[in-house]
Amino acid sequence: MSQGTTVSLDPQASSRDVLTHILNEGAQRLLAAALNAEVEEYLQRFERARDERGHRVVVRNGYLPERTIQTGIGAVRVAQPRVEDRRPSDEREPFTSKILPPYLRRTKSMEDLIPWLYLKGISTQDFPEALSALLGPQAKGLSANTITRIKDVWASEYASWNRRSLAGKRYVYLWVDGIYFNVRLEEDRSCILVVMGATADGKKELVAVHDGVRESEQSWLEVLTDLKARGLKNGPDLAIGDGALGFWAALPKAFAKCRVQRCWVHKTMNVLNGLPKKLQPSAKEKLHQIWMAQTRKDAQAAFDAVVAPYQAKHPKAVECLLKDQDALLAFYDFPAEHWAHLRTTNPIESAFATVRLRTHKTKGCGTRQATLAMVFKLAQVAEKRWRKLNGHKLLEDVIRGIRFVDGIKENAA
């Protein structure tokens, strides 16, 4: 083990399994070596800084108070070398470790573990027991009060994230949804307006998490206007969502050139609701044939196959389908590789399914602000597992305005 930096494991580590103990031993050596190397590199930068007697003025001077760092393989106690700068006050440059910043008490893996456990339904009061089972008895310091403080930090992080600059950002596609959550201390359910975007390189990003008044036009317009105010000048080429009228009324006021694609899953449910149950299975198959057709012409023929048998006796169901015909078939003007992502709101629905499950298990947060912070943090954790769009290289063609016909580039052989 390197000299000068002392790192020791919790005494109870010896009672844990051998593999974990070996991992901890390796971790302590790596941390000690890294801290020593960092300090030595810093001291070398000021090796020529000397006083009138030729003595170095930037030197090591003992250790900082020992502290415990919670890591994914247990608790590690570390005494970091102290660096003393004896130069004149106007020349001093306080040393701050990039490996072990001041006040760090847990590693990034631990920061990710906490919202992950929360996402899976572990209640605040159960966190100490859950973490102790995962990380050993050392984790008992992460009490319910600690979790509450962390949730306060999430609220601060959300506020900062919600003000971030979007200058230079380019989202080719946007998926939108209004998600309702119970709020224990309020009578009305909280409607969180969520926007997910596809970047030019095909990555899916969380774009907005906003507190709305249901899914009204005004609420959605505030979201879209805020995105523009923070620098999102180049609007999306296509927006995908369900039939909530608020968003579709607000969209042209913010991004006039953006095309619309209605979600086929929601439209199918709405149409089937206008039909007797005995007709729904066959009607569902006919609707499926529309959006699975390989060309717009075939989709139009499939539309006619739905309209003909139901128009006379079930006009409301047919009207529900026909009124959004153009918006339901917009995806044909985009790369066929992207159709699986564009025909429904599944990208955003599936991403927030576990968030909905979490709030159901806990019967909701206490306040609307707590709900916002929780949804934001859990979505951030989920975002790391979102996969790129199929055929993401074709997004550059969409941005350049290259025309696609039935999913194929017009000039393609």
Keywords:
413 residues; alpha+beta; 5-stranded mixed β-sheet; 16% strand
* Whole-number total of structural domains: 3
Question: Approximately what portion of the residues adopt beta-strand conformation?
Answer: 15-25%
Q: Order of strands in the sheet with the most strands? A: 8-7-6-9-10
Note the run of SSEs as H and E: EHEEEEHHHEEEHEHEHHHHHHHHHHEE
Helix content estimate:
40-55%
Kindly, what is the distance between the CA atoms of the first and last residues, rounded to a whole number of angstroms?
Answer: 65 Å
Overall form: elongated
Number of helices: 16
Tell me the radius of gyration. Answer: 28 Å
Number of strands: 12
Low-confidence stretches: 12-16
Mean pLDDT score: 81
The SS-based structural class is alpha+beta
Q: Note the main sheet.
A: 5 strands, mixed
What does this molecule look like?
- By secondary structure, this protein is an alpha+beta fold.
- The chain folds into three domains: 6-105, no CATH class; 109-161; 171-405, no CATH class.
- 43% of the residues lie in helices and 16% in strands.
- It contains 16 helices and twelve strands.
- It has helices spanning 18-45, 108-119, 127-135, 144-161, 217-229, 245-254, 264-272, 280-291, 296-310, 315-322, 325-328, 339-342, 346-351, 353-362, 368-383, 395-399, and strands at residues 6-9, 58-63, 67-71, 74-79, 81-85, 171-181, 190-199, 204-212, 238-241, 259-262, 404-405, 408-409.
- Strands 8-7-6-9-10 form a five-stranded mixed beta sheet, sandwiched between helices.
- The longest helix has 28 residues, at 18-45.
- It starts with 5 loop residues before the first strand and ends with a strand.
- The model is unreliable at 12-16 (pLDDT under 50).
